[in-house]
Amino acid sequence: MTAKTPPKASPEDITLTVRDRRFGRNTRRERGGDPVASAWFLALSASFPRGEAMFIEAVKAHRDGTPPRLAAEIREFIRQEVNHTREHVAFNRVATDAGYDMSNIQQRVNALTNDALQAPPVVTLAITIALEHFTAIIAHLFLTDEESLLSEGMGDPDLWRWHAAEEIEHKGVAFDTWQHATRNWKPRKRYVMRCMVMLQVTYRFLRNRMRDALELMEQDGVSGWKARWKLFAYLVGKPGMLRRIFPSWLSYFRPGFHPWDHDNRALIQLHDSAYVDANMQAIPAE
């Protein structure tokens, strides 16, 4: 009888580091610049505080009984996500102070995260690993081709570099928690649920982030078919974030997938070396 192959896990030499940074305090956001790119990044940022709070609840619900190494990684994952939430709250506040009305966007984000949290805990965890895959592949693209994505109006680039590095670093934690939580499931059941949830998450994530971005673009005077075309061209044409992450997104549907199948830890090291001086200039806590 053939022994059951254990599911993949994160590399044992990956260490999570909590980089407690602060960005953009006491700064003003100027309207103008690139209305498409700034709207897209603000739409992403608007989803982070509640979304990452949901991620925390999802992994906390399954941390009892985890192996010691995974339990330690969950603790560091939570600390990183708490810091991300804090910094994107600050980022979003600067946008509100600049005159952007975020109330409708926030209501939609709250409704979606509330629905996810009311689902069975294992479903919430499946939603979390799908969204964590999105954040990890977007983070990879940002750190490998920052110049094409940076634009005036998107805020402090160091915020996005810092967030991207930590998303890559902890990209396997929620997934390993999922593997542990479903360890008694048949592989087919685990695979089918993971893929079905990803399809639903992808639809909702893209639909709502695009809707949010279009609403923000309208506040900058770009609306109608022109706004929709400009956003489509930005996401699929040039720089083409969605087009370029598509192969990595598709890899999620491979049987036996694990986020660390693509070992891109060198980007974390690049961040910690190349950007450390800029990060250390972040304004201290209030």
From TrEMBL:
Its EC number is 3.-.-.-. Keywords: Hydrolase. Pfam families: Metal_hydrol. The keyword Hydrolase applies. One of its GO terms (molecular function) is hydrolase activity. PANTHER family: METAL-DEPENDENT HYDROLASE. This is Metal-dependent hydrolase.
